[in-house]
Amino acid sequence: MTGSALQVLVIGKGAREHALAWQLSRARSVKHVFVFPGNAGTHEVAASNGTAGISAFEGASSSEYHDLAKRAKDIGIGLVVVGPDDDVVNAIEESFRKVGVSCFAPSREAAELEGSKVFAKEFMNKFGIPTAHHGSFDNLEAASAYVRHVFTDKDHRIVIKADGLAAGKGLVLPETPEEALEDLRSIMSDGKFSTAGSSVVIEEYMDGYEISILTFSDGKTFFSLPPGQDHKRILEGNKGPNTGGMGVYSPVPMVTPDVLQKIDEVILKPTFDALAKKGELPIMFRFNSAVNSPTRPSFLWPAVHWSHGHQIGP
Questions:
Q1: How confident is the prediction along the chain (314 residues), in pLDDT tens digits per residue?
Q2: Where is the ATP-grasp domain (predicted)?
Q3: 9-21 b/e with 16+ CB inside 10 Å = b?
């Protein structure tokens, strides 16, 4: 990167944003990092040993996106990095783009691929990207009838996913038809996941292991980092309800070069080809993939970040 050092604003208050702020502060191209709203671990970290300082972002008249964008413009923020999924899907990027501040986040339209599992499944079906067999429903009665039909095979297990964002917790794994029907009522009628559960995806349960792959692209070529494995259940032994993530490790020894090549061929390349046809230029994309055989990896769900403008280097 050329030119003067950047002031960077990180949006979020969790461990993810703490890690982002800390790493950004170590880049020579960054002179200061602000965090909003931040937490006790991100506020008032003084510059030292060649690293930039980190401090709270203050002075905006409210937490509304347009007010944050105006304040960012006023104090010379050169780049905004967005952590929370909700802010990404709610199009925070638009507010910063309107005032001319680069924002590492997708547009409202592009974010739908992450924000709606129904939309993501339609995308995969349209472009021939392998994924679990599934049905999508916005009606409790139809969803319940589908569950009863699926469970006529006693060995058939399903996964129920709330369509929208639910802090990584919008997935249930019923063991019986009765559990599945109760889960549907809880999600679609009782509002267990608020409006995120107004529609659901019901899909086959896939044996095997799950991995996440971070992939960077310029819209024509792509490059992936080593795969990681996220552990979302709250208890040991993969037990208990899902959380936003109890921890992740990388690399994953069970993932062979042959498996990664197959993921490139049947998931990554078709996805980026499809996005190119739609006119999107993704910079970073996270693929959650289930591998139940070395020759049949399947795309579970995506997370996306688009950005244009700045390169942050060491």
A1: 445 789 999 999 988 899 899 999 999 999 999 999 998 888 767 666 567 789 999 988 888 999 999 999 999 999 999 998 889 889 999 999 999 999 998 888 778 888 899 999 999 999 998 888 999 999 999 999 999 988 776 677 899 999 998 877 788 989 899 999 999 999 999 999 999 999 999 999 888 888 888 888 877 788 999 999 888 788 888 788 777 778 888 999 988 999 899 989 988 899 888 888 877 665 566 777 666 655 556 666 555 544 433 344 44
A2: 121-219
A3: bbbbbeeebbebb
Largest Cα span, the chain: 65
State pTM to two decimals.
Answer: 0.80
- Give kind and range of the element (H or E) at residue 216: strand 209-217
**DSSP for residue 265:** I
Residues 267, 188, single domain; the answer is: no
Looking at the structure, tell me whether residues 234 and 182 fall in a common domain.
Answer: no
**CA separation, residue 27 to residues 5, 160, 306 (Å):** 9, 42, 21
Rounded to whole angstroms, what are the CA distances from 67 to 10, 86, 111, 183, 307? 15, 18, 22, 40, 21
Q: Does 311 map to a domain?
A: no
Cβ(170)–Cβ(162) below 8 Å: yes
Length of the chain: 314
Tell me the residue range of the domain where 171 lies: 134-204
Q: How many domains does the chain have?
A: 3
Give the number of C-alpha atoms closer than 13 A to the C-alpha of residue 248, restricted to the C-beta side. Answer: 18
